[in-house]
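Exercise 3.2. Students should predict the tertiary structure of the chain below and write it as structure tokens, then compare their answer with the key that follows.

Predict this chain's 3D structure.
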Amino acid sequence: MTEDSNSNPNSSRDLASPSPPPPAPVPLTPGPRATVLQKTFNQALLRTLRANSYANFSGCFPTPAKHVPASLESVWRQLNAKLEESARAEFEDIVHERDAIRQLNELDRLMGEARHRRDHGQGQGDVAPHTLTPEELYRARLAPHLQEAHTAMNAKIESTQNENAALSQRVQSQRLEIDGLMSRLESVIADLEGAATAATQFSAENNLRKEAVQMEEEVKARSDI
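Answer key:
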């Protein structure tokens, strides 16, 4: 018994390993959501082709419809066939390019697991870290820091906006005050200009009066002689 257990040391480790088995590969056959997508496309394409009926098509070409209806109907059939073929080919290219079937099947799987955890009372905390992908672990690790940085950035932006609003009001108030000071200053300048004008006129009149007095004194002096 001892030799058997020592000869196969990996057997005990395999039984005690906490790692879950690798997830099953995602099937490429259309699942529920992929099937609904294809069904929706087929219904939309069918409605489009029905809208392009022969009656509507021939109404656009009344002369050929009257003289060569068989040829016109053949053209109509070829046109619809080409339209359907092109639409289906383009749809298949998009599905292949976007890997839509695998992605939708993966979504079906994730939704099924989520419903299973919900029905059995399991939360996100029950998911073992070693079952997550590197990207999921990376996002889970950075999410709290990014959220904290986002909250701090929003607080700074809000504070800056409030400061800008206060500064704007302050500048507006200072502009109004400057306008009032300018108005008062213009009034003072106008008063000073009026005073200067009056003073100039008074000085001119005073000089004339002095000249008249001087002339009277000279005339009086001559008459005394």
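Discussion points: The two ends are 170 Å apart (CA to CA). The helical segments are 2-7, 10-16, 32-51, 54-59, 62-67, 69-98, 100-119, 134-224.
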